[in-house]
């Protein structure tokens, strides 16, 4: 990320800094000898920078610079981009408390229109750099995305939604989202920036794709915006001759920005993947191999420089292409340093992570080991990383030499092998298909793909036979089990895995013949109640069930026996009375349908559920009061995140959603004489019983008192967060998770109470 040049404090002070700044790496103890230790030291520095803001208007923010020439007289600036980077770094170090404090403070500072300005004076909360750039806003949204994906906590979704809505309002006809707003062009008015930044659009792409699947009312808008951004990155600012990105697009001239900053290339790889419409990973080779005279047409990015004034050298990456020490000026023509060779520590971390993603672990580690030569080793410097080595002008602004949040946070991110653009850890393993077993078979048959670099879970990754995507039944980093797409004609197909935008090598699979279509000839009986048994007779069902199914309408039936000509199935409980088409699907190929009439529903329709023993919710009250022990929080804050939860479940429910009602509960709890405990409940709904929790409600925790007696925890404590919309229950499920959010001792929950016992723990649901 880029810092704009500030006013010089004093000419003499600046001269003093030039003399002193070459020496910080050799002050005190030796630098960290392992990357793990370097990450821990960086974390120590970030914590100290956050603690500086305690009691200030920006309490929770992280001071962006270690002003080490006078630690008692700090500049007191918090850059918005840095806050996103620091929050991610805190989460990677397992420090949810600090991350939440920072994220919540930034949510408080968000403008009602969804934006943040580029930086704040944390001491009083006033704006410092009065520009609203899409990129810095996207980085805050990235931090919230990491929080949501890491902890399953959706509390910041309204903040993200406002931010993304604000950003996409700047999308242009070429698909790119322009820079945002500035007061620099016509102060003090906020006017549109005249450029569209490549890096800002790289920031936005995955955010839009992820939240398009989160916000149902934004699915179309965000997907369309993401498609435009992708087209801009692939077709407007990508140079397919040189295999790299340009810095951006000038909206006032309708011309490419001729500048070629280094960062847009590793960020493009981290955002879009190793390959796709373009071979993005080639941009890394462009940066590494550029060894020219330092001009736009003949650039150089890798520099080897003295880092301590004693002839000790380090090799890493410069921000820009120029190194002739030509003088630079500000926008108003004032002297602004020189364009000399430099090392940009933050950007070097970008390259390390991108090389790791490309499977070059030794290269990634080599870059990091060079970087930590410059890491602070004592005092307020301990663990900090400078922004740049020499403080040169990078053709945009004069770079700082102080330790800073961006370089230090990115050191933690790169060492963790974490991709903040997708909020996922990287595998660092070359993506490759080693073998397919078997190498031939019917369309609809099952195959196992062995190899490496597939990723621990499928996510948005795909496996294709030619152009046809396969149905996945299991996915790991080294093995994929898939169903050959039904309908493929006999012939040879190239099988390719696509992971995070990168395509593997291909392996051939031969489809021996088209899939055999199953046929249903009769049902016996042709009508009956939900929950009753039915025999399905026909042909080509296969000798065993495997992954095949029999469905009544959209609901899969439980199968008690299966052969090639006969299936014994149970009519799904909870089906309402009416006619349903029964279809058998074998290896992805569906049969014809036969009609079955459900004469009556077999499912329960209830609105009051009793919390009973054995992890059960029941429509019937218990027979005698007992208790369940809810595990201690262990002194850790688990607010909003079920941890060591006790779960209670009921299935087979039917009901019509009543929008005039809401979820309620009465949970009788007791923490004895213990102090500081807080019980929390989460209520979840699976409306069709398919295993997907369609609606989740998490309530604020209930702080128990230190008196031995039952206390009534109710929905009146307030809803902390919710996700998903209500629908009717059709053979559905309801589950509650109960856990201690805070405290150091276990809590007791009263269960199985009869009406005679009283104080019954219950859950009421909004259904008729």
TrEMBL record:
Pfam families: TIG. Residues 430-512, 517-599 form the IPT/TIG domain. SUPFAM superfamilies: E set domains, Six-hairpin glycosidases. CDD domains: IPT_CGTD. SMART domains: IPT. It comes from the Bacteria. Residues 1-31 form the signal peptide. Keywords: Signal. This is IPT/TIG domain-containing protein. The lineage of its organism: Bacteria, Bacillati, Bacillota, Bacilli, Bacillales.
